[in-house]
Amino acid sequence: MEKAVVLLSGGIDSSTVAAIARDYGYELYGMSFSYSQNHSVELESAKKIVGDIGFAEHRIIHLDLASFGGSSLTTSASIPKNGDHTMEIPSTYVPARNTIFLSYALAWAEVLRAYRIFIGVTAVDYSGYPDCRSDYISAYETMANLATREGVEGRKLKIEAPLITLSKAEIIRRGTELGVDYSLTHSCYDPTIEGLSCGFCDSCLHRKKGFEEAGVPDPTRYIS
Amino acid sequence: MEKAVVLLSGGIDSSTVAAIARDYGYELYGMSFSYSQNHSVELESAKKIVGDIGFAEHRIIHLDLASFGGSSLTTSASIPKNGDHTMEIPSTYVPARNTIFLSYALAWAEVLRAYRIFIGVTAVDYSGYPDCRSDYISAYETMANLATREGVEGRKLKIEAPLITLSKAEIIRRGTELGVDYSLTHSCYDPTIEGLSCGFCDSCLHRKKGFEEAGVPDPTRYIS
């Protein structure tokens, strides 16, 4: 069975990507990152998805991205609500986040001899993050194949971003076909301690709209 | 004063790179990584170099690369001595190491608004590591400029690898001109607890040969 490393945040996108990778027939090696207090709810969701979809292994890597500052997701800056942005790239953007995540995935893939890394970026219901675009993913793949023993000596590594051309609604429809239990997933940037979603941050707004457009009942527990 | 992030291992190459960046007129932000027990001696050297050359800030990032395995530098596998290799890429290669290091540097550079990252890779007295080649550095730079807010909206980031065409002897001569105190640096893959160098690992062999060819006295304390 071919191995694939899957970046798993515990949200809709990465959970759907995991189901797609399993559907392709890969043995799944999940990698999640703990990089701020805000995300403990997301990590619990990632663990539930791992149990539900079935992974060969799941690693949680602890990163200290907060010490760099630069994002409202890793500092005490307030999370924008109701689409209230003053910049093209929102404050929830974390500097070089996907680059750091993919680099850990690359290290693990090389050791596992996995030739696929799956990442749930999407350029449609695009969050304005530069590291979610197709050009970025292609450039990362080129770099990765120059960086590693395998890329030099043998088989090429591929970064799979199967959601890149899908809208949130299309992602939810695809995941629903594949049996993803979205009640296990989490999207909110600003959840309560009990894990309820705020309903008004960018991530909640995309999520609500996605379920609505997909015609799939939204299983999310919102505050109100 | 323009800022530059400098990847600093505490060895000859990165210490020379720091001196070059300072000579170019940059304000230096040093970044070192703690990724295995083996390297505590190197980190002590990095701190000494920071003090000697003068940095605005120095960060040590703790990484758990050992959990991935795959390298004799992060596992209990024996370090090759006297050039005894059975593979083209030696066992001391750490999967995706420079990619992970550069990715952290990229995050910090973005927050600092630094447009230069200095790295002491060299393709001449080439250690056989894929992530020390010029093609790799160029591909990383291309990817980095697609990954970040700055790369998209503003000024381009440059990865500076000023040693890439220099031999170890040329590096030592250049650093000596710039006043680098090489007695503070450390190269050995397999030092004693007291910090003495083994004298026979690849890194010691390159170091000895470098000083010899440069005609500069070797200040290293070897076991014998």
UniProtKB/TrEMBL annotation, chains A, B:
UniProt keyword annotation of Transmembrane helix present: no
Domain of life: Bacteria
A GO BP annotation: tRNA queuosine(34) biosynthetic process
Cited Pfam families: QueC
Function according to Swiss-Prot or TrEMBL: Catalyzes the ATP-dependent conversion of 7-carboxy-7-deazaguanine (CDG) to 7-cyano-7-deazaguanine (preQ(0)).
Family matches, as HAMAP family: QueC
Protein name stated in the entry: 7-cyano-7-deazaguanine synthase
Species of origin: Chitinivibrio alkaliphilus ACht1
Phylogenetic classification of the source organism: Bacteria, Pseudomonadati, Fibrobacterota, Chitinivibrionia, Chitinivibrionales
